[in-house]
Structures are given as C-alpha cells and as structure tokens.
Amino acid sequence: MSDATQTTPAGRRSLTLAACMMATFMAAVENTIVSTAMPTIVADLGDFHLFSWVFAVYLLSQAVSIPIYGRLSDLYGRRRVFFGGASLFLLGSTLCGFSHGMVSLIAFRALQGMGAGAVQPVAYAIVGDIYTPEERAKVQGLLSGMFGIAAIVGPTLGAFLVAHVSWAAIFWINLPIGAIAMVMLAAFFRETLHPKPPRIDYLASLLLTIGAGGLMLAMIQGRSLERWQLIACIVVGIAALAALIRHERDAEAPMLPLRLWSNRLIKLCNFGSFGIGATMMGVAVFLPTYVQGVMGCSTIVTGVAFGAMAIAWAIASAVSGRLMIRTSYRMSAMFGGAMLVAGSALLALMTPDSGPVWAGFGAALVGVGMGFCNTTYLVSVQAAAQLRERGAATASNMFMRVVGQATGAALFGAMVNAGLVHYAPGANEVAEHLMEPALRRTLSPAEIDSFTAAVAASLHNVYVVGAVLGFAVFLLGTRWPARLRPGSKI
Question: Which of 130, 192, 239, 273 is at a distance of 20 to 30 A from 350, taking alpha carbons?
Fold first, then answer.
C-alpha cells in the first residue's frame, strides 16, 4: 500500500475526509445517544441488573478489536478493513433495534463494538495517508472534534428519538450515516495494495483478544464480579499477553508490532493517551453526580455544565492543529496537559455552593486539554510511524486511550465508593437519593446536608487524582523534542 498524499486530487481528498468524519461521529455518538434512552429501554426489556453491560460490552469489544483492525488495515488495505468493520457495526446496530430482551441487546452491542473497533482507527489512518504532515495537523483536529460534537448531539438526539419515534431508532439512525460514508469512501478513496500480503496471524489475534479482554473486563466490571472471577480475569489476561509478546518476537508480520514501542515519540503519545483517557472519566462519569446530586440542579443545567467540556473539546481540537504547525508538538502537548491540571484543580476546589457555572468552567478547561492532547498525539504518532505501520500505530494510540478510560472509571468508582463508606457509613444508595428529585424530597434537611457533604468529599478526591494525572500528562509533554512540528523530519 503506497502513500496517496501526492496522487489524490484536493476535491477527492475533501470528500474522503467528510466520509471519515461521518464514520467517526457515527461510532463516537453511540454511547452518548444510548445513555439517554437507557431508562426507556430498561422499562421495555427489563433485567435492570444487566444495565451496565450494555455499555461495558460495547467498550470491551471495541477496545480489544482496535489493535487488530489497525494492523489488518496496514496489511490488507484500509478500504477493505473499513468496509468489513462498518458492515459489522451497521449489522449490530440493526439487530440492536430488534432486541427482544436485555441479553440479546448486550450480544448485539458486542457485535456493534467489534465493528466500531475498525471504524475509528481506520478512518484516522485513511486521513493520515492522504494528507501531508502539515495538513494532517489541521484535518485530524476535525476528526478529534467529532468526539466533542457527539457528546453534544447524542443526548439531545437520543431524547428526541425516544420521545417521538422509538428507542430502536437510536440504533437505526446509524444506518444512513454509515451507508453514505461507505459509498463515499468507495467512490473517492484510492489506495495501492500490497501485492502479496502476509497471512493473518490468527494466534496473535486470539491471544490479544483474550489478554486485553481479560484485563479490560477486570477493570470495567471488577466491582460486579466475584473475587475468584476477578482474579481469573487478571491471571488469564496477563498470561495471554505474555504469550503474545513471546509469539510476536518471531512473527513474520506481527499483529502488534512491538518495535513501535521502541519509538520514543510513539511511546510518549501512547502513555499520554492513557492519561487523558483516565482524566476524562472524572468529568464524564462524575460531574453530573456533583452538579445534580450535590448542588441540587436540574438535569438541563447538568447537561449544560457537562456540555461545556464537549464544546471546548471540539473547538480546541481545531485550534491545536494550527498551534502545533506554528510552534511544535511539545508546545501543544504541554498546553493540553496544563489545561487538564487547571480544569481538574478547579473542580477539586469546587464546593456545593460554587454553582454550576464553576463546574462548567472546570469541565471546559478539561475539554480544552482533551482537544489539544488528543489531536497532538494522533498527529505525532502518524508522523513517527512508517506508512506500512501507520494503521497499527494509530490503533495503538486509540487503544491506550480506551484502556485509560476503563482504568479511570474503575479507579474513580472505587474511590467514590470508599469515600461514601468513610464519610457516610451505613448510608446506602446515597447518590441515587440525591440524584432523583422524588427521593430527594423524602430526605430531611439534615440528611441532605450530611449526604451531599459525603458525596462532595468523595468526588473531591476524584478531581485531586485527576489533577495529578493531568500533571503527569504535562510532564510527558515536556519530553517531546523541542523543535519538532508537523513537516519536520523525525
């Protein structure tokens, strides 16, 4: 497969970029749009105890398949792998809408996640193939901004479809978007395939799926697993990854090229992606609890405060590309890390009387940090990797961010639970009582004060750790070569 940068006409490149943006949005919006409809879905399908698996299985199947699809796109072509993944995603979306129970919905969400594992990294790799490093800094910012836009549009669109159509429509809305993206890529994206690609390393794919899947499952669902199940997931995961590393050392075409991790820039980007993924979860998962549960604000106000992060993320993604061209990768990465520290610190200083504007401003700063860091990492990784490994390098970066999200959610969730036990012993379902207006009214003023203080103290610890993680991301940024920027020789 050859680099199409110099051979693809500008108009065709723009249409290819538009298709990749549509595909990225389609996969990114899936969790935000589903979260809005879940109360209705649970009321219809039942089995509330399986609620969290609807999200966990999507994240799990997406995470374990990202590195595999990224490498396959290097070996067998971007279009072929994208079409296969997108078709799987759309099939899963179609079947989700026809689910007759929670178990079948979870199974179809796993199928959907396996498709999403191809859509996002391959879309990024396609853009990396057809644009020069200088152009890449700008257009990758547009792709990164799709995550912010998805966070804004998803809840609103989901609420509208549930209210006026059906909960099944939140899955079927993907069908026209995905179909148009596939048609556009078929028409406008051209690539030269490897004449004799190596055979697929099925053993490596299996070991990666078992290893990454076991550890991800332990992080995502650790609190709901039995002790022996948790230990089994960790042991099996570590053993499978150890076997994978040993196998890959002698493989002709390794599924997970370990030499990528010997590249200093790729290593910094991947560790940075892990950090921003974990930091983001402190806002994405727990800010609504603080604004609605501790401050007592409405769901609309909570949505606006959370939306500040998404809007800032989208804007910062576009701005960061221009900044790194004029300055350097290091400046953009350091600025993003500094914003993560500032936003998390502001949230750590928040009190129940601070108000939603304070919370929204802190979330916006975190969003700016996410936009700058995410775009910088993706552009840097693609510049540092050879064309034949660009898909694998891009996938490794996105995979590390997903792992960071899972780790952050598990870590912060454990911290909040431990904090509630410490600050409000014997109080069960504290957050649920504060979040639900009807239940909140059943509490006395003294109980509300006591519970809100306990939740606020627990969440304070989350944002302190978030600030520490942000500072680690900032320090990683200082390790970038000083004058390196898009277009420079690495």
Answer: 273
